[in-house]
Amino acid sequence: MESKLALLDIPEANLLLEIINQSPQFNLHNVDFDKFIGLVRIHDIIPFVFHGLQDSRRQIPEKTYVSLKSAYLSNVLRNLRFWKEFLQINDAFRKNNIAMLPLKGMDILARFYPNFDFRSIGDIDIVVKEEQFTQAEKILSDLHYTKRLDGFKESYWRNKQCDVSFSKVGIIVDAHWGLDFKRGHRAILPQLWERTRQLELGHQKIDIFSPEDALFSFALHLRRFGNILKLKQVLDVARIIKDSPELDWDYVLSQGSQGRMKATLYFILMQVQLFTKTKIPSEVFRKLGIPSWQKMRIRNFLLKRTFQIEPVLKKDFLRAHFLLYDNICEPALYIINIPYEQFCRFYSLTPYTEKTDLIYHLRFLYIARSLFKKKDDFS
Questions:
Q1: Is residue 83 pLDDT above 50, yes or no?
Q2: How far is CA 122 from the centre of its chain?
Q3: Could you tell me which of 315, 320, 327 has the C-alpha nearest to residue 223?
């Protein structure tokens, strides 16, 4: 880890990695704690960092500690509220015999229950079977959730996306019927539902992904717009791997190959290897068969872009987009044929207006322009 830290030469990044890897002593020399707090917020790991700094609280500024503690306590209360709501949703689905799995943050809360205070949660993500989505929608409606289309036609969400959002006061539920956009007739994780596991937490039974499919759920999330460099998801994957000593790497490799997800897997596993002490068999990286140029680009991209104090999410995503697929054609074709509404969402444009229609028609120039902008200022 020392050589990796030396490559960064950023005191705030080094401290963050020392906390993540539970170093016996932290190097606080030259750390700008305002920048450090900013970096922690970017990676959305305040609860984790707050825990990690407990033994060093007297060595950090009081203002920094108070800020972390306040955010930590708010997160605990929010997580407890979201968990209570999730249990109500889970109970309603089970009573109606509708299969449902927690996804991302909710999966982590369920999987590592009752540790509610190590991970931040922004919404409730669930996965249902596509053929049962209409029934799932009714259940959420009965629980007083309202469908959110964000100004787009419902056909866009159902035909071009893999989830629809629902909301009620202070809570958003993202109901997914897939872990990725549909890619032709290619099946992704066809055995997913047969491989699920069941947890008994108190009086509740909760179905969850197998650890291998949970790994895929986080890997595939990288293909969707957002902060793909966020360390929160890296810690999630590291924890799943550490907690699953019998993890079936052969299944991971075979499904990665069949679903053309090898580059995406390599990307997230390299994140885990670079920034945590999680042990990943070296043969896994070798058997993924990623070209040397792509491996080098991924590693350099991660080291260079992960610890930006002012990240440019759109540029980072566009650059990474070409590193997350097993061939150059798939990401290129997606950008060339990007759905109108997806383009509007990416650049925060108001849909179905003459101005936006014109911009979409000239989208290649618009995308090229965005790559040369210093900030993501296209709203």
A1: yes
A2: 11
A3: 320
Separation of alpha carbons 104 and 123, rounded Å: 10
The arithmetic mean of pLDDT across residues 53-61, rounded, is 93
What whole-number distance in Å separates Cα of residue 82 and Cα of residue 117?
Answer: 12
User: Rounded to two decimals, what is the model's pTM?
Assistant: 0.94
Q: Locate tokens 């074709």: which residue?
A: 333
The per-residue pLDDT for range 113-149, each reduced to its tens digit, is 988 899 999 999 999 999 999 999 999 999 999 999 9
**Cβ-based neighbours of 329, under 8 Å, separated by 6 or more:** none
pLDDT of residue 6: 45
Q: Given the structure tokens 């499904």, which residue do they identify?
A: 255
pLDDT of residue 108: 97
For residue range 98-120, list pLDDT tens digits in order. Answer: 999 999 999 999 999 988 899 99
Can you read off the two tokens belonging to residue 207?
């179905």
CA distance 9 to 193: 45
Q: Within 13 Å, how many C-alpha atoms sit on residue 240's CB side?
A: 31
In the three-class reduction of DSSP (H, G, I as helix; E, B as strand; rest coil), residue 176 is classed as strand
d(Cα 75, Cα 194) in Å, to the nearest integer? 34
**Distance (Å, rounded) from C-alpha 288 to C-alpha 247?**
16
- DSSP of 11-53, one letter per residue? HHHHHHHHHHTT-SS---TT--HHHHHHHHHHTT-HHHHHHHT
Q: What is the DSSP letter of 232?
A: H
User: 156 near 164, Cβ under 8 Å?
Assistant: no
Does the structure show a pLDDT above 80 at 25? yes
Cis preceding-peptide flag for 114 (omega within 30 of 0):
yes
Cis peptide bond N-terminal to 281, omega within 30: no
- Are 271 and 234 in contact by the 8 Å Cβ rule? The answer is yes
Q: Which two tokens stand for residue 129?
A: 């079977």
Both structure tokens of 55? 């033994």
Report whether 280 contacts 273 (CB < 8 A). Answer: yes
